[in-house]
Every structure is written in structure tokens, then in C-alpha cells.
Amino acid sequence: MYVVVDIETSGGNPLHDRIIEIAAYLYDGETVIDELVTLIDPETNIPPYITALTSITNAMVANAPKFYEVAKKLVKLTEGAVFVAHNAPFDYGFVRNEYRRLGYTYNRSTLCTVRWTRKLIPGLPSYSLGNLCQSLQIQLEDRHRASGDALATVKLLRLLLEKNKGEEIIPVNGSVVSREKLHPNITSTVLGALPDETGVYFFWNDKGEIIYIGKSLNIRSRIAQHITGAKSRRDTEMVSATADITWEITGSEMVALLLESYNIKQEIPVYNRAQRRKGTSSSLFATTDSNGYLNLKISTKPEEGTVISSFASIAAGQKSLLRMVEEFALCQKLCGLYTASEGCFHNQIGLCRGACKGEELPADYNRRVNEAITKSDLPQASFFLLDKGPDPEKVTVVKIECGKLMGWGFCEKNSLSDVSMLHDCIKSFPDNRDARTIIKSFIAAPGVKKIGF
């Protein structure tokens, strides 16, 4: 079942502008079986250029229903249906934001007829609705009015369904994928329920095992990328093996990273293991050589020594190690950054004090290495970090005590003045170097507030 939607708006920004007209046609693939067509009072002024485009005036919407008055009917009309629109991100984004203003989360699977037409009918000079209708001989009446554009999109959808030759499709965030690529349990309803929120998501196989854990600022979009972007054998196997998807909304990217790291260590999902073998993450290791010097090295191999810090990539790790070398006058060679048999280049220009040639005592050199390691860790202090919460009324609270992670939780915004409430909301969470590395990267991040105790 599809619901084909078109809207007219007071401008192009869904955060500030409002819907002034909406048309929604419930379509079963053959016939329109229900509809909602109405002007909407946007409770704001309609700019002249919008009136010139749509012919909708302030006088026309003065006695029209406000969005909240049609919201319930639209929910019922679209429930269980795929939200179809020409340039779906625009229409769906406006509708979702209207519901957000009402305190309601509106989630539907979406199908964008612009994207699908490009896929099924490539090479056309333009994919705008007006030009498409002309190219494909689709009748379009009352252009730039919701009903006219929506009915034309219904006709376009019918043509695309016929051109698809009956192959079952699953809409995924505007695009479409073949039914055969997904597990039978993964339906458009399942995908439509995915949140556009920050958090951690879990892929489960049909044996009830977690096979992949990820985090994203937008769970719906990231999972759509997994599905539509699956090209390698590993990725297609993972997508087809996924029989269920669950998630935990955090609001905070910091806590999402903490949860992802913790759960991967606990569950060791098969496709996360494969990802590590591909070297997508790295760590800073410390070892002591036969001469007593502390050596540092960025590597993806777990057997390289004591883990100091972890990084998202080898490049990120190398960049961090280079800063340590420069700030603490460490030896390039003993940090794995110089491979020649003689002294390192920094020694040749006077920046390295000669540990690579035995000219500096191990105790003196190791003292600076330990200073660099200490600075790379969390400050030895006690504080809370406040970040965005899972909903507008809450904040995420992360507790650090004497440089160690104690845990995290959610606190009501109106309780932030009471420090005891911050302590009380904390749930214990394991402290480790990976967690501290994540937290350290967010201490000075925009939107994150630090409160000492």
C-alpha cells in the first residue's frame, strides 16, 4: 500500500517554514482508495513569491484547518503505507517537522519517485515533475498545487510499478531494493519504524544472535546505507542475514560511541570482527625494547603490547602520535615513524635527544614518554559531562571521577541545578582506555558542558 503525498509550503526550510497545502492519496497499486486534500493555515505569513508560484494567498488559508486539526487523519491514512513523493526528502521532512511541533514522532518508509525514475528510466534530460510528465506523456493539471502534483505522481508511480515488471521491492529511505536481497522478516514496516535519531543499532540473525553493532547520528539513514550500499560479498551477506533490527536512542554521540564500543567487546559480533580484520580501527601500543627504551607504535594488531589509546583509523592514530613526538621531543624511530638504521631525522636536526643512538638515558627518555601517555588520557579530575539527551526534556550525564569513567545516565533538564540528582542518575559503566579516549575527544566539543564536583 502506498500513500502519495505532495505539499505546498511557505518556504524551503522545514525547521522554520510551514505547510500551506497537502494532498495525500492512498493507492493500492491500481486504484486510489482514500484521500486527504486540504489547504492548511500555516499560522504565519505566506510570502509573495510563494503566492506567485502556487496562487495560494493568505486569505485562502485564513479559515483553513491548522495542521494539528488534520494530523490524526493523516496518521491513520498513512499508517502501514509507504510514503511516496516526488523528491520525498522535502515532503517527508516537512511532514515530520509538523509532527515534531506537536510532540509526536512520525516514522514511515519512504519512496522517492525522482530516485526510482532515474534508476528505471535513465538518460532523460530532466527529472523534475513537470518535465517528466512531458517526457512520459503523463497528464499534469494544476501544477504547483498539492492535488495536481500528487495525482501526477500517482500516475508516475503506476508507470514505475509496471516498468518494474512485478518484482517485489522494499522502499529504503527514498530508494528501493529488491525483496530478494533482504531477509523475509525485514519489511517496509520494520524499516519505516527506524528512528531518525542518534544512537546504537543492532543487527540480529534468525538464530537470535547479534551479528553487527553500529552507531550513527541518524540510525535510519545509516541502516539505509548498509542496505542500499551493500556491494561487497561481506556486506550483502550481512544484509541478507539480518532478520531483525533493534536500537537504543542516546541523543548523545559520545554515549552512542561508548555503548557501541562496550557492546562490541561483550558480543564480538561476526561482522564487527571481520571489520577489525580489515583494519578499520587502530590503537597506540607501548612496549619496552631490549635496551630499556619505551617504544610507541600505531597498529591494528592486538599483540603489539599495552594499549594506550584507540582510534577510528590508522591515519587518526598516526596523526595523534606525531603530535606527541613533536610536543615531548620523542624519537621518531622509537615511535615507529622512521625506519632507517641510523638515528632518526629529528636527531639529525636536533629535535630528538638521541635515544635512537643510545645517547639519551632510557630513564630520561621514558619519563617524557610517560608524560605524553598521561596527557593522552583523561585529566585526573572529577566532573560531569552534559550532552544532548534522548528527548528534548532530558540531558545525557557522563560521570568522571579522578580521571576514570564511573558511568552515565539521563537527567531531567529541570533538575540540573541539583548536583545530587546528577549523581543519582548515573548507572555504572566499565572504565577502560577505549572509553576514556572517546570521552576525551568530547570534553571540548560544541554543546558539551563540563561541571566539576
UniProtKB/TrEMBL annotation:
Coiled coil segments of this chain: none
An annotated GO cellular component: cytosol
A molecular function GO annotation: DNA binding
One of the GO biological process terms: DNA replication proofreading
Residues covered by the GIY-YIG domain: 196-273
Domain of life, source organism: Bacteria
Gene3D superfamilies tied to this protein: GIY-YIG endonuclease, Ribonuclease H-like superfamily/Ribonuclease H
Subunit structure: DNA polymerase III contains a core (composed of alpha, epsilon and theta chains) that associates with a tau subunit. This core dimerizes to form the POLIII' complex. PolIII' associates with the gamma complex (composed of gamma, delta, delta', psi and chi chains) and with the beta chain to form the complete DNA polymerase III complex.
Task performed by this protein: DNA polymerase III is a complex, multichain enzyme responsible for most of the replicative synthesis in bacteria. The epsilon subunit contain the editing function and is a proofreading 3'-5' exonuclease.
Protein name per its UniProtKB record: DNA polymerase-3 subunit epsilon
